[in-house]
Amino acid sequence: MKIKVKISNLGKVLPSFHINRILGLFSHDVGIDLGTANTLVWVKGKGIVIREPSHVARHKKTKEILAIGASAKRMLGRAPAMIETVRPLRDGVIADFDATAAMLSYYIKRVHESGGVIPKIPRPRVVIGIPSGVTEVERRAVADAAVISGSREAHLIEEPMAAAIGANLPIESPEGVFIVDIGGGTSEMAVISMGGVVVGRSIRIAGDEMTEAIISYVRLKYSLLLGEATAEEVKIAIGNCLPQKEEKFFVVRGRDLETGLPKSIKLTGSEVREALAPTVQEIVGNIVDTLEETPPELLADIMGKGIVMAGGGALLSGIDKVIAEATKMPVYVADDPLSCVVRGCGAVLEDMSLLTRIKQIKF
Questions:
Q1: Residue 284 covered by a domain
Q2: Could you read off the pLDDT of 71-96 as tens digits, one per residue?
Q3: DSSP type of residue 9
Q4: 73, 196, 225, 346: most buried by Cβ count inside 10 Å?
Q5: Contact call for residues 253 and 222 (beta carbons, < 8 A)
Q6: For strand 153-158 and strand 125-130, is the pairing parallel, antiparallel, or unpaired?
Q7: Where on the phi/psi map is residue 194: left (φ > 0), alpha (ψ -120 to 50), or beta?
Q8: Parallel, antiparallel, or unpaired: how do β-strands 331-333 and 307-310 relate?
Q9: Which of 276, 300, 316 is a domain's end point?
Q10: Could you read off the pLDDT of 223-248 as tens digits, one per residue?
Q11: 125 vs 147: CA distance, rounded Å
Q12: What does the alpha-carbon distance between residue 147 and residue 143 come to, in Å, rounded to a whole number?
């Protein structure tokens, strides 16, 4: 005699623990670094499978999603009037809920695409890294977006903690570690000891502000209007914090604000350094302030181990030396700093008991 039980009635027949185990057989658990600039997805047992810009292109009137990720970013500043290209997150928090939910849903479905006859059911357990300074409402928005996108369980962990785990730092040791994560929307700095953040700061000054600083500098000095994508290319190509032995240059093209016609100029590394200096100094100042608030015992540990940097901002040439000079401490850049947060989320998925040993929020 066969007994049929509908999925919707499973809760009446089996306890939630068994339901989670059954659904786990049909889905891939994923870790997500939901970044302002880029979204990375880590799949349990596979590693990082998606690295895409956090951009969504949609029709203005119908709100139909036309492109997500790299294809949407290529439309930035080039699309016709009826198509808008949005960044679902600003300063590390959700600015457009519908676009965020659509982006998460798209990536979760991509992870679960199968070439077999029976596709996997996208009902994964999800661990998402979020900035440490967000409000309870902003946390709830991320969790709601994850649930709407198809996850059965959403765990949120703070980005500095995830970055420290991803950088293989001994977070559960009583000896303190200092992690600095400079992303696209926020810069996180935290002293971690015994699985928790002892002292931490989250400031909404990071890679986006550096890009805007380049746009403002070129507009004021050359009366030339640059696009966001062009300014970001300049930052990546010749962005620096210290004088170089051989100064690099980058040819940019934009609109002359005086004539309204196209114009190209050659930007040098020293000019970009001048443009970025105020933003970099503000980040460095907050790192110093965080150290001043650190208990003396932990400060002694940090002096011996040094400061570890993660995030895309860690790749800015010379920023580690500027921080080392300001703090009088050694500074190290983590291996593959761009993926530290998502690797930390992945490590938590591999060892779910770790979630009970660090500060975390479950929805």
A1: yes
A2: 999 988 888 889 999 999 988 888 99
A3: G
A4: 346
A5: no
A6: parallel
A7: left
A8: parallel
A9: 276
A10: 999 988 899 999 999 999 999 888 89
A11: 10
A12: 6
